[in-house]
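hey so u asked for the seq, here:
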Amino acid sequence: CQSCRIQIRVMGLLQFQNTGISGLAAAVPRKVINNYDPNLYFREEEVNEVIEKIGVKERRFVDQDTCSSDLCFAAAEKLISEMGLNREEIDLLIFISQTPDYRMPATSILLQERLKLPTSTIAFDINLGCSAFLYGLTIAFSMLSCGGFRKALILDGETRSKVYSLKDRKTGFLFGDGGIAALVENKEIFRNSWFSLNSDGSRENLIKIPAGGYRKMSSCETVTEKVIDEYGNIRSEEHGYMNGADVFNFVIREVPRDFNRLLDFSAVELNSIDYFIFHQANSYINGFLAKKLKLPLDKIPSTIEKYGNTSSVSIPLTIVSELRGKLSGHKRLLLSGFGVGLTWGTALIDLEDCYITEIVEV
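ran it, structure tokens below
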């Protein structure tokens, strides 16, 4: 292939050369939600039981007027300013979210104008959940590897606080909001990267918002909250729900398999990986994965305790939050994302002096 930047694609496995992440920034809402605060819907012992299992003590929630794009804009402005980027050289903008500003137009187009990028910038949205940052990286790496692009900006934002019911103990203590910006470039200093991406729509019902789209459009009935089980959990059809037990079984079966498949494909030794960054699903799942894969805990940064599950934002947010000041020189990261769809993916990426900003509060 051109410039030998994209080398192999076999059975959903891809390898790239000379393309990588140059910089990362993140933004979170100022509003801190303490999961231990008195709860109107659940008894204290119920709250403590849930928190102990999922590991989420705090989250960040946007206000009513703040959207995913606002968080991404703040992160992007921080990254562009501190790295001294020329906006005219950003040829590609990918916006990742399942909580966009509007049904139409695409939020990426709004961010192209708001960031004052040239009209020659290619901009589009990706509507995917927890694995979406890996999908976005793969697309950016692929497009840059084709030549004709200078720099790509991946903006990934979620305001999950707007789509889950606080009266449902299965999800009400778990999700938080955040946004990130990642700069992707072609440079000779970048070594290799490998990706594995997967999907299984037969398990679509495990994590879903059943109404509010075009299959089942919004109505008075779909927005009405109802008691949905014998435990007194309450949500509407336009709130997200999750079958936690089946999701757990999916994760512990498929994620280690994909993890090892990518290691075999890349021929990378496990001890050569500096950090393992998992989607921040909950502390129970991630602890189980670490134990099953026999990974050193000091190489697995976590933000689940202070930011909760921020869906596709969680992997890059964890890098910015926990690895700032630790990515000088050459570092190799393994990224693992999994969830709604169901989709899952694994990536091995080499970083070279990746610039990480401080987290912005919006």
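Residues 209 and 240 are 4 Å apart (CA to CA). The longest helix spans residues 244-266.
lmk if thats what u needed
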